[in-house]
Amino acid sequence: MIQCYFGNGKGKTTASVGAAVRYAGSGNKVLYVSFLKNNRSSEFAVFSKLEKIDVLYSPVEYRLFDNQKEDLSPVFSDAYTKLLAEAEKRCDSYDMIVLDEILDTVSFGYVSENVLVEFLKVYGEQKEIVLTGHSLPESIEQLSDYISEVRAVKHPFYGGALPRKGIEY
């Protein structure tokens, strides 16, 4: 089955982390794949202590707030497409595959929507798949079994607060 957590509110990655921990706690193996973030996000410190959860993360970190002078789209596209391909190679060894921020890589044009749709068609019937991101393409919505929209009502960022370790990352 395919689960999606999307929207502009805080909690999408947190929901995927909770799903992974709960599923691993029931004795199942989880592959947690982190797009757009490297291993500095705090959940990786916990995952490294859990034997039922393995992690893949991007070798390049997308920095939304950095002022980049050059177009790094080809770098990101190559890295994230390879990351999804690596996850697909490992799928047979896991019961749940979490693709955190994959929906954003699709909306930014770094990963082909068609490639993700084909992945979901193959593995969505065999595995528990969890997707997160800000927007949900209609093609993926149609394939999904669970969809939760996370809506921002209030957030410290609106007042200029910086991300806090352990809360936002």
Detailed description of the structure:
With 169 residues, this protein is an alpha/beta fold. The chain has one domain: P-loop containing nucleotide triphosphate hydrolases (Rossmann fold, 3-Layer(aba) Sandwich), CATH 3.40.50. It has helices spanning 12-25, 43-47, 73-90, 102-107, 113-123, 138-143; strands spanning 2-6, 30-34, 53-57, 96-100, 128-133, 146-149. Strands 3-2-4-5-1-6 form a six-stranded parallel beta sheet, sandwiched between helices. Strand 2, helix 2 and strand 3 form a beta-alpha-beta unit. It is globular, with a radius of gyration of 15 Å. The mean pLDDT is 90.
The total strand number stands at: 6
Task: Describe the main β-sheet briefly.
Answer: 6 strands, parallel
CATH-assigned fold name? Rossmann fold
Please give the domain count: 1
Using the alpha-carbon principal axes, give the shape: globular
Identify the CATH architecture: 3-Layer(aba) Sandwich
Uncertain spans, ≥5 residues at pLDDT below 50?
none
Radius of gyration: 15 Å
End-to-end separation: 27 Å
CATH class: Alpha Beta
* Category from helices, strands and their pairing: alpha/beta
Multimerization state: single chain
Strand content: 15-25%
Mean pLDDT: 90
Number of helices: 6
